[in-house]
Write a structure and sequence with these properties.
Strand content of chain A: 5-15%
Order of helices and strands of chain A: EHEHEHEHEHEEEHEHHHHHHH
CATH class of the largest domain in chain A: Alpha Beta
Distance between the termini of chain A: 34 Å
Oligomer: homodimer
Largest interface: A-B, 97 and 95 residues
Number of strands of chain A: 9
Largest sheet of chain A: 6 strands, parallel
Number of domains of chain A: 2
Strand order of the largest sheet of chain A: 3-2-1-4-5-6
Chain lengths: ~300, ~300
């Protein structure tokens, strides 16, 4: 049995739902001694201090990481270059850096460029969890319990760094899987980024129809569920779509082909063909999603 | 104030979730004296009798309607021609017939053809309610409370017949709206039939990708919600798609255009354009769906 995980100082850059929940979960697991939070707004840092999500607050990442053992980058992906540039010269040699970004290829390219000599101790990661809420006040220690966290270590990544990050996430109750970064991006494009684009496109198209008030007024649960993720942050999702462009375009093409097959069957009034396609989809949902759904109630991506 | 609604004998043809709930709601409102149920399977009729959804059961629609005051056709749309043909010669002159089909243009055409001289006492209707369950055991008297019921009376429809059906649905707690049949079909194509096609297409496409188990295993709440209606009945939805073909194809075309705009922006890595489109969709959801959602929790279409 390996020695118990011990982290001296954890620095969370971006103390929002994800960063804050990671801090709370590690504190509850008693594997971390001290937690520093770095953020852009005083208000959110004050909330994080008050709620004991963090022990100390700072608005300067460079200073905060000077004596860090583990650094979690939990900012929006667009801020990563600036943050990495700022912290790289100040990281202790043993410090491990990880992130929580929804796309991995672009974050890895960014780290390779801006972390320079520290790249071998950077462990790219993606916790697949979240709710529609945000900010330190939304953080809860059980957010990652039973959730998947994907690590996409690179050939240069030190095995000891990957092990540390894996054990930290396991301390949060997460199931840790390692994946090729490109495969991660292809899968997430299909199961997460594409459904978001679909929801935004559907709701946007309905809003442009004649008399949208009446239209939405006569909708029911089907539309409500499909439209839920159209309530997600436009900034964050525009960034994700651009960051994961190629994989998303490939998934979109597959989807448009599936839609075209259905359109052709509708045009030909071919109920038998439609029924066959619908049955295949229903069977797949039954087989792969329904059990998972029972497990995942209440948590969204 | 109009005289209290009184229905002597109600005949429900198709004692499933919708037909059974209509019977239970009218019984609870004490506006109906006797309820006969007509169905294809002995088992479901026995359940309906046992649960006091109906007072008498029959497998012969022609005989059941002989002394009917109100007849609800709550079978799948595909069975309507045969049922209408069977009952038309046996309906008392005063009897009112209504239906609960998801599409109206095709049901009206069918009634015009098969009800013949009785067409003026046929009131086309669509209660927008349901759950994923089916059969008489799923029936509940409160299913229609606060739900929309659309009536699409035709020029020939007797005003007294429309009034009776309207008051019956109001007795169930529903909000009754009258709409042009073509407009009904266009709206439902957009807010209900299209989202179902989208869900079937998305789940079907994911199922055909490499390693679907891993793919679905790494999905989260976004996909789960979009995929829920891909669990709907393939037979029923194939019929609806064909019955409402033209309106559905028009909605599908609008949607594919919206998707193409997003695809173009992704191809050009135009985060600003994407953000604008996503914001428009989020705003529409907020304005037209979120309040409705609070009202509608737990009921699906």
């Amino acid at each position: 049995m390996p020695a118990r995980l011990k982290i001296g100082k954890l620095v969370v850059i971006g103390v929002g739902l994800i960063g804050g929940s990671f801090a709370l979960a590690l504190r509850r697991a008693r594997v971390v001694k001290r937690i520093a939070g770095v953020g852009r707004t005083r208000r959110n840092l004050a909330d994080a201090l008050k709620l004991k999500v963090i022990d100390e607050a700072s608005r300067e990442p460079a200073r905060a990481v000077r004596d860090a053992d583990l650094v979690l980058l939990a900012t929006p992906v667009g801020q990563m270059p600036a943050v990495m540039m700022a912290i790289a010269p100040h990281l202790p040699a043993h410090a491990v850096v990880t992130d929580a970004g929804s796309t991995k290829g672009d974050v890895i390219a960014c780290a390779r460029r801006f972390l320079g000599g520290r790249f071998a101790r950077f462990v790219p990661a993606h916790p697949i969890a979240g709710t529609e809420k945000s900010g330190a006040t939304a953080a809860v220690p059980e957010l990652f319990r039973g959730r998947n966290v994907i690590l996409t270590p690179q050939p240069e990544t030190a095995a000891s760094a990957t092990r540390l990050v894996q054990r930290a996430w396991e301390s949060c109750g997460a199931r840790v899987t390692r994946l090729d970064a490109q495969e991660h991006d292809a899968i997430l494009a299909a199961v997460s980024h594409l459904p978001h684009v679909i929801a935004f496109a559907l709701v946007g198209m309905l809003a442009r129809r004649r008399n949208p008030g009446r239209l939405f007024g006569l909708s029911a649960g089907g539309l409500r569920d499909t439209a839920r993720i159209a309530g997600s942050s436009p900034e964050m999702w525009a960034d994700i779509c651009v960051a994961n462009r190629d994989a998303l375009l490939a998934a979109l093409e597959d989807y448009e082909n599936a839609l075209e097959e259905m359109r052709a069957a509708i045009e030909q009034s071919d109920a038998t063909a439609l029924r066959g396609m619908f049955e295949q989809a229903r069977g797949a949902r039954e087989k792969w999603l329904v059990k998972k759904q029972d497990r995942a109630d209440g948590i969204e991506d």
